[in-house]
Amino acid sequence: MFHQSTRSLRPAPVARQLLRRARGLAAARRRVITVAETLEPRRLLAATAGGPYAIAEGQPLALAGAGPADTVSYAWDVNADGVFTDAAGPSPALTWAQLVALGINDGLSTWNVRLRASNAAGAATDSPPATLTVADAAPTLSVAGPSAVSEGMVYTLTLDAADPGADTITAWTINWGDGTPTQTVPGAQSSATHTYANGPAARYVAVSATNEDGSFAAPAFSGLSAGSLHPGFGDGGVVVESSLVLRSARSVLQQPDGKILVSSIGSATSVARYNLNGTLDTTFGSSGRAVFASGRTISPGGSMVLQPDGKIVIGGTRSGASGYSDFALARFHADGTQDTTFGTGGYVAATLGPRHDRVYGIVLQADGKIVAAGDVDGNAANTSAFGVARFNPDGTLDTTYGAGGTVVTTTGSALNRA
Description:
Elements: H1 13-30, E1 53-56, E2 61-62, E3 71-77, E4 87-88, E5 93-94, H2 96-101, E6 109-119, E7 124-126, E8 130-135, E9 140-144, E10 154-162, E11 171-175, E12 183-186, E13 191-195, E14 203-211, E15 214-217, E16 221-224, E17 248-254, E18 260-265, E19 270-274, E20 289-291, E21 299-306, E22 312-319, E23 325-332, E24 347-350, E25 357-364, E26 370-377, E27 384-391, E28 406-409
Parallel strand pairs: 1-8
Antiparallel strand pairs: 2-5, 3-4, 3-6, 6-7, 6-8, 9-10, 10-13, 11-12, 11-14, 14-15, 14-16, 17-18, 18-19, 19-20, 21-22, 22-23, 23-24, 25-26, 26-27, 27-28
């Protein structure tokens, strides 16, 4: 009889090694290995280039940017070439010469300014663009000549011009004042000559220069005049305005192209513009007259300024609901239409005191803000004070100035007038 052993059959040593290796490979296949890469997070920085900025040819540019608290460096691209090396720091100032070196050398032009802010970790971001507008500036014209010349002799007039921008004088135009045709000479020419046939006579010489931006009148030159009225202006040198709207002239200024603006007291706030020969400029307003159409009347106090963009701001007084008067400004476009983007429909007013406030002078700052000055009645005892108000370019009061945009100063005397 045969008996079978009940003893378990065990694998030989070599077989056991192979079995362990196979089990190890199977376990390795089941394991999931995750490799994580740790990177320093790149934070999104917030930067602003400030603005919008507005300057005229020849003026410096003051920038005012900002970044987050951990910003360690500021770099500017002012001329929109994508290179952030034009200026450094949060609030740099660039001279006109520096702007010219960057290619910003002429108006009217517009540029996009950007700021790059960086922190110590190397994270950086570029701001949205801020607008820089460079307005044209009129050239400085110089005209000179002898005060007298004998008839039949050659008279020489010297001509000179300087322009802060890249504009070039292309032509000079001279009215010799004796009825002969107007003479035009090339812009590069430094003098012009003329022969007066008859004398004795007083001659008024009028000169203008032309460049890429238009024509500009030279300062009045009366080289051959003994103070007589200009015969080529109006009627023998005199213009009489017969309009019922323009009743009494209060302020006058000359535009870069030589045209003349006159503001007046009348039945409405109004400005007239005259050509060099004294005729009304019919391209301005309505047949040469700009009338404020809102029904609000300003009595101009002898104050008017011309903005670099050609807009006209006049200052004076308006009657309030209480029967007393307030500081008041109105603004017209260069074509004589009402600038409805200024204040309320082109008109702003400010109350400085309890009684009568009157504007007697206004000036325009380089940043476009408007400063008005005048007097402020203090009380019924007939005492008054100096009053100053500063307005933003849009006509709102500049609340960063004085108390809510105004300053009133009393010197102690009975009457004070700015």
